[in-house]
Amino acid sequence: MLHLTKVAVGCADVETLARLQGERWGAEAASLTRYMPTRAEELAGGSLFWIIKHRIVARQPILSLAMVETPWGTKCRIGLAPGPIAVQPVPKKAHQGWRYLAAADAPPDLGAAGDDDALPLGMVRELQSLWLI
């Protein structure tokens, strides 16, 4: 399995990302990009991991990949499951477009099953702002 990373441009946090997606896409979350990934078949079951403030902080399962006509020309529409899922923050440099992320390098979800020591989300944000996690 393979994943993608993409910068959430203009988003200060995961809540802003979710709000903007709702405003732009409604219940059908998606992201537009210029090109279809050449390894699209490997993305089945994968996720799009969002980078905010130089950290991977959330993911959304990829539901579909399709070339579509838009007012800006032909684009690849990455259909996503609604609502970003917070993950353990991982430092990541910003980049244009998307990049592949190997499954072995993907961070786990925050509060994953069996994670009794998960920190409250507000505390995680505060520690992230201090670059402690």
Summarize the structure.
This protein is of the alpha+beta class and 133 residues long.
> In whole angstroms, how far apart are the ends?
27 Å
Largest sheet: 7 strands, mixed
- Summarize the helix and strand pattern as letters: EHEEEEEEH
Helix-strand makeup class: alpha+beta
InterPro entries: UCP032025
Protein name: DUF1489 family protein
Features:
alpha+beta; 2 helices
Structural overview:
- Strands 1, 2, 3, 4, 5, 6 and 7 form a seven-stranded mixed β-sheet that branches.
- The protein is globular and about 45 Å long.
- The model has no long low-confidence stretch (mean pLDDT 88).
- It has two helices and seven strands.
- Helix content is 16%, strand content 39%.
- It is α+β, with helices and mostly antiparallel strands and 133 residues long.
- It has one domain.
Layout of strands and helices, then pairs:
Elements: E1 2-7, H1 14-25, E2 30-33, E3 47-52, E4 55-70, E5 73-80, E6 85-91, E7 98-102, H2 121-129
Parallel strand pairs: 1-3
Antiparallel strand pairs: 1-7, 2-5, 3-4, 4-5, 4-6
Pfam families: DUF1489 (PF07370)
InterPro entries: UCP032025
Protein name: DUF1489 family protein
